[in-house]
Design a protein that fits this description.
This protein is α/β, with parallel strands linked by helices. 23% of the residues lie in helices and 30% in strands. It is built from 7 helices and 16 strands. Helix 2 crosses helix 4.
């Protein structure tokens, strides 16, 4: 029976990775916490970059060590994960260990076929935990796993950010097992957060049946988040006749009905959201009339983002909302004559209703 132990910096040199047959001191391990994968100029070959915490770091030495010195990385060029590990091991003085992998980053230039192959391979690696976070971004990828001064070894910024589920306005995080599950589930397009910078992650990469991913911009990503109940504390900035008003902590629930009619997904979705008034123009009295006006403007702002997300999904023949999956799970009779791999590319005709209620003012923790 395997027991996995979380280890911190104070015990970095003392703890051992437990197990029946692979017990070995951390100081004798090359513990990979991050992995980057990117195509090279040679067809079929990829650059594999592994990120390791510096095992010589101690509590007493930490203040004098810069963030970039708390980790080290090694890059090899290989056609597969197994080959990359073999080549990497030749560079390491310690035994490569993948049991603490926290983040996998791949290039947005990789096609759907490449990404699915990568995920299947990682899924077959028994020692790799399937709870690592997935992220994609434009090359060069090295900047995405650059150590942040916000974290100290062995923590990574991307891992900590996604682990804090209620920290971000919109929950874009996807575990490795979740992304893999979407690749083998008919009726939903796999998606991953798109990082245009080390700490700039507010877009979504949606994978169609073939080719490179389609990137949803920030507004479209927010619309996707509202439609999939992934908005935890959204913010709406509204321009009224008297000045700027702001609604914060926008979140809520959804109800949905999906039908198939003449080869089109007919969707009726209702969002029931709540929020707090965090700013009103100077001199404005927050009375019932003005409150209704702000609520109406907030509903229109959310609806515009939702429709923007639906338009790009429909134009790219993708379904990151899982509407076709819902149809398959609730009414398989309607889809029994249709190839399952075509469900995800069905046209979407959606009727979206947004109900926003302001339940207070001011923002507190």
């Amino acid at each position: 029976m395997r027991r996995y132990t979380r280890w911190g910096i104070g015990a970095l040199l003392l703890l051992t990775l437990t197990g029946c047959w692979d017990q070995r001191s951390v100081t004798n391990r090359g513990v990979a916490v991050g992995l980057e994968v990117s195509p090279t100029s040679k067809p079929g070959l990829f650059a594999w970059t592994y990120l390791f915490p510096n095992v010589t770091v101690t509590v007493s030495s930490l203040p004098s060590i810069k963030p970039r010195e708390q980790y080290f990385s090694e890059t090899v060029t290989a056609a597969s994960l197994a080959q990359s590990q073999t080549l990497l091991q030749q560079k390491l003085s310690r035994d490569l260990y993948m049991g603490q992998l926290k983040v996998v980053v791949w290039s947005s230039t990789m096609t759907t076929e490449h990404v699915i192959t990568l995920m299947n391979t990682l899924n077959h690696e028994g020692l790799i935990p399937k709870t690592y976070w997935v992220v994609t971004g434009p090359p060069p990828l090295a900047k995405l796993l650059t150590p942040s001064p916000q974290e100290v070894v062995p923590e990574l910024y991307l891992s900590r950010m996604f682990d804090c589920l209620k920290c971000q306005s919109f929950n874009l995080g996807r575990h490795g097992w979740q992304f893999w599950a979407d690749t083998v589930t008919p009726g939903i397009s796999p998606n991953a957060p798109y990082a245009s910078g080390p700490t700039h992650i507010n877009e979504l990469a949606v994978y169609g049946r073939h080719g490179r991913p389609h990137i949803f911009n920030a507004d479209q990503t927010q619309g996707w988040a509202y439609l999939t109940a992934r908005a935890d504390k959204g913010t709406l900035t509204l321009f009224t006749r008297h000045g700027v008003a702001t609604i914060s902590r926008v979140h809520g629930s959804r109800s949905m009905k999906v039908q198939l009619a003449r080869g089109t997904l007919r969707v009726k979705e209702t969002l029931r959201l709540t929020g707090l008034v965090s700013q009103i123009p100077s001199g404005v009295v927050l009375n019932h009339k003005y409150l209704l006006r702000v609520q109406r403007l907030g509903e229109q702002a959310v609806l515009a983002r939702c429709l923007a997300a639906l338009r790009v999904a429909d134009s790219t023949h993708t379904d990151p909302f899982g509407y076709a999956r819902t149809l398959l799970w609730t009414n398989s009779q309607a889809t029994r004559r249709m190839p399952l791999d075509q469900l995800v590319s069905l046209p979407i005709h959606a009727t979206i209703t947004v109900r926003l209620k302001i339940v207070g003012q001011g923002v507190s923790v």
